Amino acid sequence: MEPARVISIRDINRLIKMKLEGDSGLQDIWLRGEISNFTFHSSGHMYFTLKDEGSRLKSIMFASYNQRLPFSPKDGMKVLARGGISVYERDGQYQFYATAMQPDGIGSLYLAFEQLKKKLELEGLFSEYSKQPLPRYPRTVGIITSPTGAAVRDILITLQRRNPAVNVLLYPVSVQGKSAAPSIVKAIQAMNALAEADVLIVGRGGGSLEELWAFNEEIVARAIRSSAIPVISAVGHETDFTISDFAADLRAPTPTAAAELAVQHSGELKQGLVYLEQRMAKSLSVLLGKSRERLQHAARSPYFTQPRRSLLVQAERLDRLRDTLIYRVNNKQARMKERLTRLSGRLNSMNPRQQAEFARKRITNADRGMEMAMNGIVRQRQSQFSSLVRHLDALSPLKVMARGYSLVYDEKEKSLIRAINEVQPGDLVHIRLADGKLDCQVWGIHGEEQANGKERVD
């Protein structure tokens, strides 16, 4: 009997993975279920569990796929997910790898619409402050729509009826299907690059939510918002609202209304010109009347009726001004001379040579004062020293010995003998007198004391 083949855990997991991925019945399938345990990882991957009434399935959607989702998955949301079954080799766990996802049931497109609207609104994409005003008198209108739909016919007829002088640029696009959104974005960018249109009309005729969905795509909304040319959104009927309507500079309820908003009626322009012409004529008439009155008033003025008198008055005024000017000039010159004299005096007082001389005198006086102070201190110290010398001399033992006293030392002259019990008969002693020293020997010792009032001698 052949021995059983031993397979590693890694190999068996890889084998199972290959079998699952090779089974066409487990690849490119759609699953319906409810999301639970949803986690949006910092790496961009989405981890969740798909469940129904009877079972659960671990699932993952990588960032490269979930970036294109038109909505944000959440716990409890029912979805349709597309993908395949495979095995995570490390844990030996099979799971569903999703590549596409959409909300399940009626209203899924509406949910995606609301989520995208909320996202772009939070970004400020719909802010009124960032929207551009429409040009009042556009020369060229750009139209981005299907060339075969009813919308383009309504727009062209309305523009021709209201103002035949306006030029029209038509950029045909697909307005329905997967290629519609990129086609619309390309058209908006091309119109901006061409820079010939003064205003753009972007839209189509009515239809279902699915048919209008191209105008709910995020790329279309961002292209409209980034357009340097003002954009009028004209999608569907009056009750239809799309993301493009909120992103555009102006929303028109219908394509026909968009054409009416884009250009003014030529008849209205003519009426406006007539009204402006009447106002201008009236204003000129009033201005001419006022100018005529001013001219008549000026003609009656003394400056014209008696010009010599006016000249004499001005000549007199000129003389007074000349006298005033001369007086003020002379007065200012006097003040300036006085100030110059004062500043010259201050400058002379601050002459460096005088300052140096003054400093030299101060130094000489300081030297003299310091010398006198030092001499006084020396004399004081000399007097104190002489007094101390005299006091020390008075206390000197030599002075005492000069009065008949002497000092007695032992044989080695190291100790002073103060009492008779410090020597014995026959000891050598040295006696120091005021004028010299005696070397003596003790022959006898005699003590003195008071006893009963009589002197006692041993």
Describe this structure in words.
Among the domains are: 9-105, Nucleic acid-binding proteins (OB fold (Dihydrolipoamide Acetyltransferase, E2P)); 114-264, Rossmann fold; 402-457, no CATH class. The protein contains 13 helices and 15 strands. The protein has helices at residues 9-22, 63-66, 108-123, 150-162, 180-194, 218-225, 243-247, 255-262, 266-299, 302-305, 307-349, 352-395, 397-402; strands at residues 29-40, 46-51, 56-61, 78-88, 93-103, 140-145, 167-172, 199-204, 231-235, 250-251, 407-409, 428-433, 436-441, 448-451, 454-457. The strands form four sheets. A five-stranded mixed β-barrel has the order 1-2-3-5-4. Strands 7-6-8-9-10 form a five-stranded parallel β-sheet, with helices on both faces. The protein has a three-stranded antiparallel β-sheet with strand order 11-12-13. Strand 12 and strand 13 (436-441) form a beta hairpin. The longest helix is centred in the last third of the chain and has 44 residues, at 352-395. The model is unreliable at 450-458 (pLDDT under 50).
Give a summary of the structure in a few sentences.
The protein is an alpha/beta fold.
Question: Tags for this entry?
Answer:
458 residues, alpha/beta, OB fold (Dihydrolipoamide Acetyltransferase, E2P), Rossmann fold, five-stranded mixed β-barrel, five-stranded parallel sheet, 13 helices, flat
